[in-house]
Amino acid sequence: MNESLHRHLSLQRSPQWTISLQMGFLHLLPLLCFCCVTGRCEDSLATPLPYSSFSSSSVYGRGYGAGYAKLNRKQGAGGWSPLDTDRYQWLQVDLGSRKQVVAIATQGRYSSSDWTSKYRLLYSDAQRNWRPYLQDGNIWTFEGNRNSEDVVRQELQHAILTRYIRFIPLEWNKDGRIGVRLELYGCSYWADVISFDGTGIISYRFRSKKMKIVKDVITLKFRTTVRDGVLLHGEGQQGDYISLELSRARLLLSINLGSSEYGSIQGHTTVASGSLLDDDHWHSVVIERYRRNINFTLDHHTKHFRTNGEFDHLDLDYEVKSRNLTFSCVESSSSPVFFNSTSFLQLPGQSNGDTLSVSLSFRTWNPSGLLMFTELADGWVELGLVEGKVTVYMNVTQKKNTRIEISSGSSLNDGQWHSVHLNALENHAMLTVDGDEASTVRTAIPIQVQTGGVYFFGGGDSRSLQRSFQGCMQMIHIDDHLVDLRAVEQGLIGTFENVTLDMCAIIDRCVPNHCEHGGECSQTWDTFSCNCSGTGYTGATCHSPLYQQSCEEYELQGQSSGAYWIDPDGSGPIAPFRVHCDMTEETVWTTLRNNLSPQTPVSSHDQYGKAVLQITYNATDEQVSKQTSQSCSFVSSRYGVPFTWWVGRANEKHFYWGGSGPGIQKCACGIENNCTDPGHFCNCDAELRAWKEDAGLLLYKDHLPVSQVVVGDTSKSGSEAKLTVGPLKCRGDRDYWNAASFTSPASSVHFQSFPGETSTDISFYFKTSSPHGVFLEMLSPGTRMEVSSVVLLTLEVGGELVQLSVHSPRPLNDDEWHRVQVEKNIKEAVLVLDGRHREVRAARTQAHAKLELYTDLFLGASSGQRSFLGCMRALRINGVIFDLERRAAETPGVSPGCQGHCSRYEMHCRNGGKCVEQYNGYSCDCSLTAYDGPFCTDDVGGYFETGTLVRYDFLPDMGAPVPDEMKGSPGWGLSGEANLTREELVFSFSTHSAPSILVYISSRTQDSLAVVLRQNGTLQIRYSLGGLMEPFTIDIDRRNMANGQPHSVNITRSFREIRLQLDHYPLSTYTLPETSDVHFNLVKSIFLGKVFETGQIDPVLIERYNTPGFVGCLSRVQFNSVAPLKAALRSGMTAPVSTHGILVPSNCGASPLTIPPMSSAHDPWHSETAGSVFPFKEEKKRADGVNRNSAIIGGIISVVIFSVLCILVFVVRHTFRHKGSYHTNEAKGAESADCADAAIIVNDPAFTETIDESKREWFI
C-alpha cells in the first residue's frame, strides 16, 4: 500500500528531499477518490484508435460513420455527418483509458461543403455525468472551420483528464451540413486511486519523531458527491496543525503554525476556495507553503495569503494508523439533467391514481423557476421555486377554482443540491425539503386526488405562471419509482426539448469572486453582480476608487480644508482611510491623528520600572506606510525621566527626539547646546524638581510613525513624566505631480512588461496643444489609446477588437489639464474623460480573459504612429504609480516634469497676448489684443485721410448664440450691448490736424465717451454718464499734441475714479462728480476719426471737432477686449466693423519690439536638452568669479560698440535727410530738448520716426 501512496500523493517537506504523505497523523475521511498526473503531452490520441472507438448520435449514410472522423483522412465519405442537422447531434471518442488532453484540431468533411464553425466539448470517465469544458468561468464555445480542408487547432487553457470526449456541433455551414474530422492531442495518464467510504483513514509515519519544517508542497486530486468531509489532517503536540476539508461543497484550508500560551499570538488561519465541488468531477489541489506565505491553488485558481501569528515552522508529531481501503473509484449511480431557459422534460406517471408522489433533487442560482407541473382530474398541481422557497400551488376546479398554497425552506437558490418530496393522498398534502421530516409542511385539500398521468419538469406547460427552471435536477421519482433517464435519451419513454441529459453544467460565477475590495457577490444563472456599499470603491466589480488619492487632489478640485477619505494607491489593495486636509497654506498638509491625549501622565510600569505606551492611528500600518512618498513630521514632547526611547516603523528602537536626527542620542537642546544641565543632552535628564520639557519635530520619515513609547525609571521616588505625541503630518503629493514632457512626434517612454489582472485600470492627466497623437501602446494585445478631437481607446479582448471613444464639448488641445480613466473588467470596459464624459461597452460572454498586459508598455507611439506631444502626469496602472520623471530622464525626446516655453520667464507674450504651447516652440495668440506679430508687439495702425472713419458696432444682446467664427476675433470682445462700471481705452496717435475727434464711444442712451483734440492741439476727454447737465471734461493743457509726434493714451475708469496715463508723464487721477452716474449704459458703437450717427449726440462734438475729421495715424486702439481698428484692417476677420473713406495700414512711426530667438541649448523642447532642469528666471548664478568678471567686461565692450554705431547712424541720417521732412528741436535729441516730450521720443525705441516719414512710405 505504501508504494501506491508514493505514486499518487506526495508532500515536499524541504528542498533537499521529497517523501510521500509526510504528514504526522494524516487523515483522509470522506467518500471520495484521489489521483495524480505526470508527464508532458503532445501525442495524437484519436488517429491510432480503431473505428469502433468512435460513436455518434446518428449517421447520415454508410460512408459518413463516426469512425471516419479522423484528421486528414479521406476514407468513406471523408468524415462524419449526422442524419439530422441540429444541436442535438454529437460525436463521441473513447480514448480507451484516461488520458490528459491538451488540444483539439478540426477539419470539415473532405472535399465537401460540410463543416462545423462552432462547437463545444463534453468529457466524462464513464459515459455519464458529462462535464462541459469551461474557460474563464463559462461553458466555452470553440471556433471551428470556415472551409472543409484547413486545419484549425485550439489549445485548451487547462488540460482535461478523461476517457470519453463528446464533440457537440453548435453552428455549421449554412449551405451544407454538419461535418467534421478531428484530432485530439495529449498523452497517457497513469495514477493510482483510493476510494473512501466515509470511515476509512490513512495514516503515515514520518522518518523522525518530530518534524519542524519551513517549506511544504502538497498536491492531490479528488472527486466526490458528498459536500462535507475531511480530506487531510495533521497535527503536533504543541498545537500546530494543518487541515483540508470540504464544507458545503467548498474547500477549506486551516493551518496553525503556533499560538502563544496566553493567547496574545493567535496563529489560526482559515481560507476557503471553490464551490460546487460535490459534482463528482476531478478537482486538483496544490498547497505551497514557505514559512508564513502560502499559495492555495484549486483548479488553477490560486489564492495567496499569509498565516496569522509570528511563527514560521510547522511542528508535527509522528503517528501511524491504517485501515483497509479500496484502490479503485466507485462510480456514482446518479444521473443529472440540465435545463436552460427554454427546456422541459415530459415524463409519464400513473393515471387516475389516488396518490400523487413526486420527489427530486435540484440545484440552481435563480430565486424562481418551475420544478414540476401536472394536471389532475379536477385541477392541477405546480411545484416551483419562488424567491428561494419551494412552493406548491394546487388549483381545484371542482370547488370553484379553489387555490391552495404551501411553501417550505429558504435561500434554496444557493447552488447546493436540495431535495424535495411532494406527497398528496386522500384529503391532505405534505411537502418535505432536504429530508427534514420535522419541518414537513402539511395542509388539507378539499378533494380526493386523482392523477392525470403526465408530468412536466422545468417548463413546457403554458398554464404555469412560473418562469422556466434553469439549473440541474437528479434523482427524479414519480409514484416512488426512479425515472430511467437513459431510456428517455433513447426515446423509449417521455420526451424532452433543449434538455441535456447526464450533465449538470452549473457554474458558480462568484467563485473566484470577481467583486474586489470586499464587494459582495450575488448571481443568477446567467450573470453576477457586485454590491460595493461600504467598500470605498465603485464600478461593476468594485474596482475603481470612490475617493481621491491625496489632499492635494481635493485641493485642486476646489475643495476647502476639512476631513476627507483618501485612497493613495487607487484601485490597489490598501483600503481608503480618513484624514484631515489643511489647505489654508500654499502647501497642502495631510494629518493623521493618534489615540494619545496631550500630556498623558506616565504612571503604570512593569517590574523593571518601565512604562509602555502604545500609539495607534486612524489608519493601518500599511496605509500609513503608503504615505512614505511625502514629508512627515511628529510634534513630540516628554517630561521628567531618562532611559526613554520610541519605536517606529519595522519595530525599530530610536533614541533621538524631536529636533534631533537618527543616530544622534540627543534632544533638541543637546543639538543647540542650551540644555538645562550642560552635562546632559536632554532637559529631562537634569532630574530637577521643576517640570522640564524636550520637544520638537521628528522629520526622518523612514522611521515614522511612532507606534510605541517606552519611558523608563518611572518607579523612582519623586519622578513624574507626561508625554505628548502629536499627529502625523504629511506634506504635498509627489506622485500626483510626477510628469514628463513629450517633445518629438517619434518619442516614447518604455516600461517593462507587468502581469495582467482580471480587472485593469489606467489613469493619467495630460495637456497638449497638438491636434492628435498616441498616448500609449501595448503591441501584443493590440491595445492603443490616442487623442484627437476625441479620446479613442482600442482593446483586443478575447479575440474581439473593442473600440471606445469619448467626445468633449471643448477642444482637448487647449493646453489645459484633462484626465483619462480606463477600466477593463470581467463585465465591461469603461472610458472616462474629465470625470464627466464616459462610454461603457459590455464585455462579451466569452471575453472574460485577463487583459493581456504582459507585453511591454510604451507611452507614446512605437509602431510608426505620431506620438502624443505635450505633458503627461500621475500615470497609474492597477494602483501602481509609474515614475515618469525617472524614465524620461533616460529617454531622448522626453524630458522630466512639464516645463514648456510658456513657463520661461523671458518668453511671456506681450501686451495681453496668450502664450500657446507647441511641441517644438510656442506661439502667441494676439487675437484679443490690438497688436500683431509673433510676440504681440507689432503695432496695428492706419493712416486716416480727410473724412475717413471706422465704426465698430456692438450687436444687441438678443440671447442668440455667438457665431463660432467671431468668438476668437479681436473685434469680438463683448457678446452684445453692455452696462459698464469699468472700462479701459488705449490707443496711440500722431497728427498735425486739429481740432478733430480721435475716439468716440456711443450708447443707446445719452451716455458717451469722447477723446478729442481741441483747436490749440491740446487733449480733452469728455465723459457723459448721466446725472450731469454737461459732460465731465478733463483738459490736458500742458502741451500741443498735434505736433506730428506719436503719443500714447491710456484711460481707465473704475466707478467714479478715472486714471489717465499720457505718454510717459506721471499717472493722473480724476473723480467723477457725485451727481454723475457710474454706469456706462448699453454701449453701442465705437467711432475712430469721425462721428457719423443719427440721434442725440453731444452738440459740441459735432460743431467744434467733427469737421473736416481726423487726418493722421491711429494705432493700438483697444476698448476693453475689443480692437476695432485691427478688425477693420484685417480682411480675414469677421467682426461688426465698417470703414468709410481711405484707410491705409501703417505702423504710425513705431518700430516693433523684437525678441531674439532662443538657442537650442536653452530650449526646453529641444530633444538634445531632454532631462535638463530649466530655471524660471533669466539670471543664472555663475560657478566662480572668473565667469562673472568676463560677463561684466563683455557687457561694457558691447555698450561701447552699440554707442558708436548709434552715433554713426545719427550722423548719416542728419547728413542725408530727405527734403520735406519736418525739422523741430524736439527731434534732435534729449540733450538739446526743451521739454520732456523731446526726451521721451529720443529715449523710447518705439518712437523713432515722424509721421511725415511714415507717410512718405505710401506716396513715393
TrEMBL record:
Pfam families xref list: EGF, F5_F8_type_C, Laminin_G_2
Bridged cysteine pairs (disulfide): 871-898
Segments traversing the membrane: 1191-1212
Domain Laminin G, residue spans: 334-504, 738-898, 939-1148
Keywords: Cell adhesion, Cell junction, Disulfide bond, EGF-like domain, Membrane, Phosphoprotein, Repeat, Signal, Transmembrane, Transmembrane helix
Signal peptide boundaries: 1-41
Residue ranges constituting the Fibrinogen C-terminal domain according to the UniProt record: 542-594
GO BP term (any one): cell adhesion
Highest taxon of source: Eukaryota
Keyword Transmembrane helix assigned: yes
Domain EGF-like: 506-543, 899-937
Cellular location(s): Cell junction, Paranodal septate junction; Membrane
CDD domains: EGF_CA (cd00054), FA58C (cd00057), LamG (cd00110)
Protein family according to the UniProt entry: Belongs to the neurexin family.
Annotated NCBIfam families: GGGWT_bact (NF040941)
Protein name, entry field: Contactin associated protein 2b
